[in-house]
Amino acid sequence: MPRGEGRRFDFDVEASPEAGPAVPIPDTRTRILAVSLALFNARGLGRVTTAEIAAAAGIREGNLQYHFPRKSGLVEAVFAAFEAEALAVAGRMPADPAAPEALLGYQRAWFDLIWRYRCIYRDGIAMVDIAPALRPRIHALRAETQALARGVFEAAVRAGRLRIAPEALGRLIDNAWIVSSHWMNHRLQGGTTLTEADLDWGFAQLRDLFAPYLAPDSPD
Amino acid sequence: MPRGEGRRFDFDVEASPEAGPAVPIPDTRTRILAVSLALFNARGLGRVTTAEIAAAAGIREGNLQYHFPRKSGLVEAVFAAFEAEALAVAGRMPADPAAPEALLGYQRAWFDLIWRYRCIYRDGIAMVDIAPALRPRIHALRAETQALARGVFEAAVRAGRLRIAPEALGRLIDNAWIVSSHWMNHRLQGGTTLTEADLDWGFAQLRDLFAPYLAPDSPD
């Protein structure tokens, strides 16, 4: 195993062993958002109260309200974080689109993002009920990320990695979008608990959509 | 164009030209259900009021309430009609599973059913809000129809029409289920209006899932 493997998701700060002020403590707002996302993922975006978030973040409710006067603002901030990451992940063109693992890595990054923000996909209806202002942003983000993904897949076609006619590529992207967005609710059948095993299940569903169109790997 | 083309959805009664008692008038309950389904499909299951249904059926609200004291009962009756048809369609094994059009015809019948009852798919959340008693029936129906569909696809594999490994068949059926159930909301992006052009769009999405696994048609 190459050195550094297994810690590729660490932050830069963890690589600096010095004690003291080099290790930043996340500010309260950042901590509130991280705690909120964890609770929303675990228990459902519509079910978690601001009192529970304050308690889990170890702050008073008054302090939470100082940062986020209403739950809608908190939900909007979680969505904004997702929005920024989604645009980055969707537009991250693989360095070599012809490489055997290029598309798989791209899809996995998108899928991992969906998993980290699974409350947004699983509880989408509750989300726009709480924060109706998000509706146009959801649609805009969807259009932007789909256009970015299309660019990546078209590069894979040009590189000979994906063998598919242009009109079928559009349908493949739409099917991938539908399956990526709805596999959780399909898997849940009304509950709210998902585990890493479900994540593997969902990714296998996505992978199979592309499998028939992947160019076979060269033998060497 | 063969004689009778374009009227294949007519009821038998239209083929009997005699005037008089041979032409049955649908009973009030049947008429209420047909009108309800049409309004639910057109305007959204959660948006249509019982007053509007009574007006569209040409009856007094008191008469509607005699048949369906609450909207939940009306929604349950619409679901019961869907339930009966879904079990019939899902279990209708093609006469010759090896025939080129066998699977396509089977899928189209299922897809047309989804379209005729599109309010159930498009407004599923509103449906269980209005009639929570449907929740276990939805899950039971899903399990039954999935098992029936699996039987039909396994027959197509045995007949050499579908070329796919057993574990990939399970994923294909799940993907087909996810796409069939969610293409409408994907297409709508929050609105409620769908046209026949959307129906064609959705069916092309479903067809493409199976296309890579279909055995090529024999040349004669």
Describe this structure in words.
With 220 residues, the first copy, chain A, is mainly alpha-helical. Chain A has a domain of 138 residues: Tetracycline Repressor, domain 2. The first copy, chain A, is 64% helix and 0% strand. Chain A has ten helices and no strands. In chain A, helix 4 runs antiparallel to helix 5. The N terminus of chain A is likely disordered. Chains A and B meet through helix 8, helix 9 and helix 10 of A and helix 8, helix 9 and helix 10 of B. Chains A, B: It comes from Methylobacterium oryzae CBMB20. Chains A, B: One of its GO terms (molecular function) is transcription cis-regulatory region binding. Chains A, B: InterPro entries: Homeodomain-like_sf (IPR009057), HTH-type_TetR-like_transc_reg (IPR050109), HTH_TetR (IPR001647), Tet_transcr_reg_TetR-rel_C_sf (IPR036271), TetR (IPR025722). Chains A, B: Pfam families: TetR, TetR_N.
